[in-house]
Amino acid sequence: MSTFKAPKGTYDLTPPDSAKYLAVREALSAPLKNSGYGYIETPGFEDVALFSRGVGESTDIVSKEMYTLTTKGGSELALRPEGTASVLRAALEANLHKLGNLPVKLWYSGSYYRYERPQKGRYRHFSQVGAEAIGAEDPALDAELIILADQAYRTLGLQNFRILLNSLGDKECRPVYRDALQEFLRELDLDDDTRRRIDLNPLRVLDDKRPEVQKQLVGAPVLRDYLCDACKAYHEEVRDLLTAAGVVYEDDEKLVRGLDYYTRTTFEFVHDGLGSQSAVGGGGRYDGLSEMIGGPALPSVGWALGVDRTVLALEAEGIELELPSATSVFAVPLGEEARRVLFAKVTELRRVGVAADFAFGGRGLKGAMKSANRSGARFTVVAGERDLAEGVVQLKDMESGEQQAVALDALVAEVQQKLA
Ligand code: HAM
């Protein structure tokens, strides 16, 4: 223990658990790599205005949860609370939308920061794998992303998740609905904070979980009744494509999501074993975001999946990932001469691509064998003075317990052959 601890709302990933996080990141991104999405990486901080304009001044993320800072040079920056605005900013800056065919399909993985009240599944530093498909209005693209997220969760073995689906309409029909909703909400008995939200972001009022509010919301106008024909047709097509792909979803007309940039398709993946922080992933279409941050019209769609919550979901379902052991061969030298010889063999093994490790620190045989066991290595190589005098090492198969003397010169080839 040092004097310091990880800051509130954060935690460290340490071995052996950290291997599980790496495997989850890999599994969540694998379907994207396989579907034409290219990797993008952007800075951990951005101009604060990118988020206030993009994600929306009235959202909790921007108004309460951003880590902002002023640099010594006077720039106003924010640690990124989400990835979509950054990725779109970077794509525009690199002119990706002009270089090739649209859509530009991108995936990313990294750390995000929100100053939220910490609880299980809700952290101030968390990790997402995300995807953005920029510059195309095509229901098949919305469907593709939902199908790929579903595939990612299923390859991990998850079963107890549900997909909630909604359409938020577009710039034609949403304002009409917004007016109708505001008119309805203004007649209700609500506290001052909620009244303010009626003006700023009335759709978020529908999200209010308090029973006294929910009770009054019965009979509120429903967005579905206000969707224009184009939005309705688009949504129907997304639903049909999902059904054709065998992806089961639930229509959830109350799903509004906490970011202002969404238009039309929105969706969330919720896991039933996680309690209140049940959203393991979410996303949707954001046809107006590019223009909101000063770019051309580029209708787009994307999602982000939470790595931390996906790991919690695996635990909730009791799923143990099968992680290949990191080390194949563990070398245990007995004596100074053996140290030099086996260290050279470990280097040789590594150079031909065999994962190998070595008993460092000059401990005795017992301690070294403990390390060998803990490493999960399939083979140990033990050698002492007498072995070396005969030009051999002892190769032990940790699974079968069998041990054989192998000529020093033949060791690398022998190990390669046995592992193949
Ligand atoms: P989001 O719903 O804010 O969407 O976050 C996506 C996922 O990140 C959540 O479903 C959750 O699993 C995880 N997450 C969010 N906040 C936390 C937290 N404090 N602690 C742990 N996990 C968290 C977005 O970020 C959008 N950028 C998604 C998107 C991409 N929409 C279009 N493209």
Question: Would you mind describing this structure in some detail?
Answer:
By secondary structure, the protein is of the alpha+beta class. The chain has two domains: 17-173 and 227-316, BirA Bifunctional Protein, domain 2 (2-Layer Sandwich), CATH 3.30.930; 329-419, Anticodon-binding domain (Rossmann fold, 3-Layer(aba) Sandwich). Helices cover 39% and strands 21% of the residues. It has 17 helices and 16 strands. It has an eight-stranded mixed beta sheet with strand order 1-5-6-11-10-9-7-8, sandwiched between helices. A five-stranded mixed beta sheet has the order 13-12-14-15-16, with helices on both faces. Helix 14 (336-351) links the parallel strand 12 and strand 13. Helix 1 (17-33) packs antiparallel against helix 6 (139-155). The two termini are 43 Å apart. The mean pLDDT is 96. Histidyl-adenosine monophosphate is lined by residues 82-84, 114, 116, 122-123, 126, 128, 130, 132, 258-259, 279-284, 286, 302-304, 306, 308-309.
Beta-strand proportion: 15-25%
Provide a count of the helices.
17
Structural domains: how many? 2
Low-pLDDT stretches: none
Give the CATH architecture of the largest domain: 2-Layer Sandwich
Output the CATH topology of the largest domain. Answer: BirA Bifunctional Protein, domain 2
Ligands: histidyl-adenosine monophosphate
CATH class category name of the largest domain: Alpha Beta
Amino- and carboxy-terminal Cα gap: 43 Å
Number-wise, the strands total 16
Helix content: 25-40%
Shape: elongated
Quaternary state of the chains: single chain
Structural class estimated from helices and strands: alpha+beta
Task: Compute the average pLDDT.
Answer: 96
CATH superfamily of the largest domain: Bira Bifunctional Protein, Domain 2
Spatial extent as radius of gyration: 27 Å
